[in-house]
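Before a computer can learn anything about folding, someone has to put a protein's shape into writing. The outcome of that step, for a single protein, is printed below:
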Amino acid sequence: MSTISALRRQHDGAAKPDAAARRFQVYTQRDLDRIEQLEQLPEQTRFDMRVVASVLPFRVNAYVIEELIDWSRVPDDPIYQLTFPQRDMLSPGQYARMAAALHAGAPKATLQALAHELRAELNPHPAGQLQLNVPTDADGQDLNGLQHKYRETVLFFPSQGQTCHSYCTFCFRWAQFVGDKALRMASTEATRLHAYLRDHREVSDLLITGGDPMVMKTKHLAGYLEALLDPAYDHVQTIRIGTKALTFWPQRFVTDDDADDLLALLSRLVRAGKHVAIMAHYNHWRELSTDIAQRAVRRLRDCGAEIRSQGPLLAHINDNADDWARLWKTQVRLGIVPYYMFVERDTGARHYFEVPLARAWNIYRDAMQQVSGLGRTARGPSMSAGPGKVEIQGVTEIGGEKLFVLRFIQGRDPDWVQRPFFARYDERATWLDQLQPAFGDAAFFFEPAYRAMQAASVDGT
């Protein structure tokens, strides 16, 4: 049997266990040699994986390997690109340095020191999230594990949820997973979260995030959420839970030992009047193709939770309109609300995944033209930049000048929200800081205030 035939046979389901009955089995960097499917790949490709996984985090599970990846299409398969390290995810110089260290058999401490140095070059915490987003308590102490960037929404990073069932190669929170405590955001202190929410009546939305909160046992999640049923938290109207589990381990909602307990917890929150929103990360329509993935969606909807989908536009994975249109059509059919198309953030392996803003807008527009109004709820392409979420609304020409039309979907200053502004058209630009103001302006309207915010955070005021 040819290699391609063997791989296709693996993907088509020969001798695969039933997905619903599957035991969770995870593979990390040290387990790369144990993944049978990789044995079919060239030795150099496998070494490349070791090099990249020495710098960027790698974690995948058997469900993803056996149910979602079409091994006959590797290396072009989108889910393979989503989960397995590729050589060009590091710059040539970064790759060469780590490869040389591995070839030389460098000791573990040397490899770790080099990895730490290389990670510092990858902008591990973009958009000022450590400098500008971390709130303080009444005594002026930083509340680690919380972020409060926008007036209405608080993010909480429970320590038990700071890993994932698998890691995405593009992840903008990759720094959470490399074992460096200085880069990690997390908290086990539910009481500090609850006290902060009681003191901030402007907060209507709590986002439990990570990592992936759905790796937590239900009893731990309940410890953070059940207190919000008290009337003291009536102002917290929406509980959002960010997760990739609907892709990477849908068994969490169907067959895990405490799956029923999880759904019961969410149902109690819904019955008490809370809006429970599962912020599901999807990157490709194939993630919804398995029976158990669709069962997980149905069970969540049956308990009263709403599922909203979001994900970035990524080279090598989903940088074409047809895949986005098919994803959104599938989601609408299953009762999932398309929410965001993001632009790949300026961190990690962004050079491998980023798509020019002009092309991103064309892909978004072409995809929108293929779906009905119910699929056009997805906003984007949106940059989650330091000042806020900035949407590319289109390309136009004014006074003979070709321009990007932009607006804030969300901003550090609420007065910025929904304000349109213009930037010079640049077909190569991939992020907000690469754009120049239009009409000869020296700065975008928000920049003076944003620079003042940055300065104040440095001064501690």
Residues 1-15 have pLDDT under 50 and may be disordered.
